[in-house]
UniProtKB/TrEMBL annotation:
Residues spanning the membrane: none
GO function terms (MF aspect): ATP binding; ATP hydrolysis activity
Superkingdom to which the source organism belongs: Bacteria
Keywords: ATP-binding, Nucleotide-binding, Transport
ABC transporter domain ranges (all copies): 2-233
PROSITE patterns, per the entry: ABC_TRANSPORTER_1, ABC_TRANSPORTER_2
Name the record gives this protein: ABC transporter ATP-binding protein
Classification via InterPro entries: AAA+_ATPase, ABC_transporter-like_ATP-bd, ABC_transporter-like_CS, DrrA1/2-like_C, P-loop_NTPase
Length: 310
């Protein structure tokens, strides 16, 4: 349904996207992951016809996005990271405004407004000003606007940033319902790996403007079949201990949050013993050690050297 071939975009001396190739089948939920500056937003902007590629091409339903942007916008909905509605209007007034921009009118528009308000769970608050909404409700009206014209494809860029867990859960379930009940194709970016694990059929991982890995979650996790994730809680992180752990020949990556250190290491019993020795020589205590199978987050860290939120 969506295909990119040699897609590139440069801004002056900076190449934001570097000759990427990808495809998305109808009815898939596909995750697009990458740390800040990886090129995700630029790629999304090219898919949605907002930015023209420097090289390459994107086609949707065999229609060139570059040559026929007006045609593809009819069946493409975009949920931006920013709240893109009028704060001093009600939800219903916003939907009327954007519905007319989509060339909907009369009974058709009225019916569709009722439908999308129900989809996002805002029927009871439809006539309240958006500026009085919670953060989660504002995110939901953002989604409602993108759904007005019955898009076949929905691009969602960080749709749950900064909202409460209940609203986040509601949005995730809405995404799954749209995919399941309407066979909607969805491109989903997020800084929350658990959202991607929960929603996505396949995942593309971008870094430095390139797609560095892609596949189903099990396929990506297979990259680390010979590794374990080791989570060590130290009493404190002494000077030099992280460098010593990173320098270990069986350790491929080290990250930490406070005194909790996560290592991706070869499946070898020597590693645990060496961690104890390094801790002892650094004068710190090990409060707990957990060994587990690698997750999608671990694969991301292994490939990019950064966590998703960096």
């Amino acid at each position: 349904m969506i295909e990119a071939v040699n897609l590139s975009k440069s801004f002056k001396n900076h190449e934001a996207v570097k000759g990427v190739h990808f495809f998305i089948e109808q009815g898939e939920i596909v995750g697009l992951l990458g740390p800040n500056g990886a090129g995700k937003s630029t790629a999304i902007s090219m898919i949605s016809s907002l930015v023209k590629p420097t090289e390459g091409e994107v086609t949707i339903n065999n229609i060139s996005v570059t040559k026929n942007p007006g045609s593809i916008r009819r069946f493409l909905g975009v949920v931006p990271q920013e709240i893109a509605v009028f704060q001093d209007l009600t939800a219903r007034e916003n939907l009327k405004f954007f519905g007319r921009a989509y060339r909907l009118k009369g009974k058709t528009l009225k019916k569709r407004i009722t439908e999308v308000l129900e989809i996002v769970g805002l029927t009871d608050r439809a006539d309240d000003l958006v500026k009085n909404y919670s953060g989660g409700m504002k995110r939901r009206i953002n989604i409602a606007v993108a759904l007005l014209h019955h898009p076949q494809i929905l691009i969602m860029d960080e749709p749950t940033v900064g909202i409460d867990p209940q609203s986040r859960s509601y949005i995730l379930e809405t995404v799954r319902r749209l995919n399941r009940e309407e066979n909607m194709t969805i491109i989903y970016t997020s800084h929350y790996m658990e959202e991607v694990e929960y929603l996505c059929d396949r995942v593309y991982i971008m870094d430095h403007g390139e797609i560095i890995a892609s596949g189903r979650q099990a396929e990506l996790q297979a990259i680390l079949t010979q590794e374990n994730t080791i989570v060590v809680q130290f009493s404190r992180v002494a000077n030099g201990i992280l460098d010593r752990l990173q320098a270990h020949p069986l350790v491929s990556s080290v990250t930490h949050q406070g005194a909790a250190v996560t290592l991706i290491a070869k499946k070898d019993t020597e590693v645990l013993g060496d961690i104890f020795v390094i801790a002892q020589e650094a004068g710190v205590q090990l409060q707990s050690v957990e060994v587990k199978s690698p997750t999608l987050e671990d694969v991301f860290l292994h490939l990019t050297g950064r966590t998703l939120r960096n």
